[in-house]
Design goal:
- The chain has 7 helices and 15 strands.
- By secondary structure, the protein is an alpha+beta fold.
- The chain has 3 domains: 113 residues, 3-Layer(aba) Sandwich (Rossmann fold), CATH 3.40.50; 100 residues, D-amino Acid Aminotransferase, Chain A, domain 1; 56 residues, no CATH class.
- A hairpin with a 5-residue loop joins strand 4 and strand 5.
Length: 325
């Protein structure tokens, strides 16, 4: 009998998956890199699922102990110039099959930690409505061609809901959280606008099944350049995050919020200052490995514990309205 393994559904460029495979041991993991699906053999039948990778390693339904959904994306971003009508058709067929593969494994109770497609029911506006019962939430408005709800002396920021690049093909950029003057915003464009929170620290909290891991970043080192720490070079950001002690009321609020959201995993972002903690969002499949790359703070080990094929499984309940659309 074959030893059962973890199936990671991801991409060929995924440092977090690289770390997890290294820590677990390659023999305990089968990695399906969806962006290069054309390098794999793949089958779904009444008997179940079968995948073979480019090296010849194989996995079938009965060999899968757990499934971790990372962030698979289409090969289109790697082959934009060569995509034909056939390519688009094949990509569409494989994407449909990938979703159904995940749904079947979900039905089998094998999906752990990260809920696939959670953004379909747990988007930012739902998050903020539920979060308001547990935390302070900055005043916000999503608008196009309507009146501002902010007064002239309110400080505001604009942010992207999707983080889709904007601009011409040759010079596309991401819209990070940016301070703006309300009157300068074009009424013809859709804007996500939020009250600017004066804060001393960014706080991010990784929620992993039943444990919290909080980290902080001092904002004084970059506020003269940017509003959003994600605009900083990655080595700067990774080197300056430190463990953060959450007060009991915020920690219990995180637990209550995540339970009401029905999530086993997420990275919650807050701003902290003299007026306390302000909830910004929970990324239901947020990156986290850069907070504990070496495993010094317990976060990496907790994730390993949850996804290892050798440990108890805590399956995510199958949400039919989620993944079938």
């Amino acid at each position: 009998m074959k030893e059962r393994r973890l199936l990671i559904v991801t991409n060929s460029y995924d440092t977090t998956a690289d770390i997890l495979v290294f820590r677990l041991g390659a023999d305990k993991v089968f990695r399906f890199n969806y962006d290069v699906w054309n390098d794999y053999r793949f089958e779904i039948t009444t008997k179940g699922i079968f995948i073979a990778d480019p090296s010849g390693r194989e996995i079938a339904s009965e060999d899968i102990a757990k499934v971790l959904w990372r962030k698979p994306w289409s090969r289109r971003s790697h082959r934009p110039a060569s995509r034909t009508g056939e390519d688009r058709y094949y990509d569409g067929e494989m994407l449909y099959a990938l979703r159904e593969m995940v749904n079947l494994l979900w039905l089998d109770g094998k999906i752990v930690l990260v809920e696939p497609f959670a953004e379909l029911h747990a988007g930012k506006f739902v998050q903020m409505r539920i979060a308001a019962s547990y935390f302070q939430v900055p005043k916000y408005q999503f608008r196009r061609n309507t009146q501002s709800i902010f007064s002239a002396n309110n400080e505001i920021v604009v942010k992207s809901l999707t983080m889709e690049p904007v601009g011409d093909e040759e010079a596309r950029e991401l819209l990070f959280t940016t301070k703006v003057v309300d009157s300068s915003l074009s009424a013809e464009c859709p804007w996500m606008i939020q009250h600017y929170v004066h804060a001393q620290k960014d706080v991010t909290v990784a929620f992993v099944h039943d444990r919290l891991f909080a980290f902080e970043l001092d904002r004084k080192g970059f506020l003269d350049r940017v509003t959003d720490w994600r605009e900083l070079p990655s080595d700067w950001e990774q080197g300056d995050w430190q463990p953060h002690q959450l007060p009991d009321n915020i920690a219990s609020g995180v637990v209550g919020f995540m339970k009401e959201m029905g999530l086993h995993f997420g990275r919650l972002d807050f701003l902290w200052g003299k007026d306390g903690y302000f909830f910004l969002e929970v990324n239901t499949n947020g990156e986290w490995a850069w907070l504990d790359t070496e495993g010094h703070y317990g976060l990496l080990q907790k994730v390993i514990e949850e996804i290892s094929p050798d440990t108890a499984i805590h399956p995510i309940s199958f949400l039919r309205f989620n993944a079938a659309d």
